[in-house]
Design brief:
Layout: E1 8-9, E2 13-21, E3 25-32, E4 37-44, H1 46-49, H2 52-68, E5 76-81, E6 87-92, E7 97-98, H3 99-106, H4 111-130, E8 133-134, E9 143-149, E10 152-158, E11 165-166, H5 191-195, H6 202-218, H7 228-237, H8 243-246, H9 252-261, H10 273-285
Antiparallel strand pairs: 1-2, 2-3, 3-4, 4-6, 5-6, 7-9, 8-11, 9-10
Helix pairs in contact: 4-6, 4-10, 6-9, 9-10
């Protein structure tokens, strides 16, 4: 696909440079020559463009972003098909780093860093859930942090709704994945996802957010295994080590928020993104040293919590599993840089066969630097 550099596709998008590529396609920096706007352009390989399921997933990503309409969702600007059948998507061009890169660079993050990030992600997910969309593949590399946007620091964008579930749409769009298939990145799967047969609703995303907060706080994922099946068994049957066992000086109440989000039974978790967000805000507002944290939109010297719960989509139902569990390949968009170094002092998570890379070092489906930025997000060697 590098032969496209310098070319103008579909009469309006100049291909400037390659950002990342992999088995499914490539992501380029581009320019809309008609309005002189810098963009990111994601192209499926021609062979992938002929596969109906891959095309449906590709298009669903664009549809989800358009349907949600949140400032914290990566904006999709255009979708099209080239004369040779290649599918392309045009997205806003972002510069910054993923949460995964930030954890990799810093080892672990304190609440003063994680709370503003998580609040913004929960705002985005709350908007998605209100639109009847469940992400189902949240992970550190799908959380993108811009240094500044509209005068705000550490502004968050949620990426990659390619495996999302449209729970409020009728017909074939109800579920674009095979019945009973395991969908998502294994380390961040909820127990109901790992089982592959239980109903999946917005609380699956809340569980994944709990895992993200656990990893950001402790520097490691709650469950690890040598094989994919062993990992699923642990997620379904075992209890993760308490966060304060890994970070002895961690506030017990903050640890309790993480544990509630990661409860094995969906009914024991936060029931909405608003409830989760309010718990974080209330915890921070009660601590003077954190009371003026920036959330990306505003500061909260003293918090007045909303009295009305967030409206969320009703739980979607899924038929019993009829096919063996399958996993979405990691790093399907690849990276120019390949695997990064292990996190110093934290050890290296053993690879799970068939999953490509470890959770801390996973290259996400947007390619190098998330496919929407030209700035490297890997730590210097």
């Amino acid at each position: 696909m590098t032969a496209l550099i310098g070319e103008i596709i579909d009469g309006k998008y100049r291909i400037v440079r390659l950002l990342g590529q992999g088995g499914m396609g490539a992501v380029f920096e581009g320019e809309n020559v008609r309005i002189r706007r810098r963009v990111a352009i994601k192209l499926l390989h021609a062979t992938i463009s002929s596969q109906a399921e891959s095309v449906a997933r590709f298009e669903r990503e664009a549809q989800a972003a358009a349907r949600i309409g949140s400032d914290h969702i990566c904006e999709v600007l255009d979708l099209g098909v080239l004369v040779d059948g290649t599918r392309y998507m045009v997205m806003e061009y972002l510069e910054g780093e993923t949460l995964g890169a930030k954890i990799q660079r810093m080892g672990r993050l304190g609440p003063e860093t994680t709370v503003p990030i998580m609040i913004q992600v929960l705002e985005a997910l709350g908007a998605a859930h209100a639109a009847g969309i469940i992400h189902r593949d949240l992970k550190p590399d799908n959380i993108f942090i811009l240094p500044t946007k509209a005068g705000l620091s550490n502004f968050v964008k949620v990426l990659d709704f390619g495996v999302s579930k449209f729970s409020q749409l009728a017909g074939s769009e109800m579920s674009m994945t095979r019945t009973g298939a395991v969908v998502g990145t294994p380390y961040y799967m909820s127990p109901e996802q790992a089982r592959g047969s239980s109903p999946v609703d917005q609380r699956t995303d809340i569980y994944a957010m709990g895992v993200l907060l656990y990893q950001a706080t402790t520097g490691q994922v709650p469950f690890d295994a040598e094989t994919f099946n062993e990992l699923l068994f642990k997620i379904v049957l075992e209890t993760a080590p308490l966060p304060q066992q890994l970070v002895p000086d961690l506030d017990v109440e903050f640890s309790g928020i993480i544990q509630k989000a990661m409860a094995r039974e969906p009914g024991a978790r936060f029931q909405s993104c608003a409830e989760f967000k309010n718990a974080l805000l209330a915890w921070a507002a009660a601590r003077p040293s954190l009371a003026m944290l920036t959330t990306g939109r505003a500061t909260f010297p003293r918090l007045s919590l909303p009295s009305q719960p967030e409206m969320v989509a009703p739980p979607a139902t899924m038929p019993p599993a009829t096919t063996p569990p399958a996993v979405r390949p990691e790093g399907s968009w690849g990276s120019q840089n390949g695997h990064g170094p292990p996190v110093p002092g934290l050890g290296q998570t053993p690879p799970v066969p068939g999953l490509g890379q470890t959770p801390q070092l996973t290259a996400n489906s947007w390619g190098a630097s998330s496919g929407v930025t030209g700035r490297s997000t890997r730590p210097p060697s």
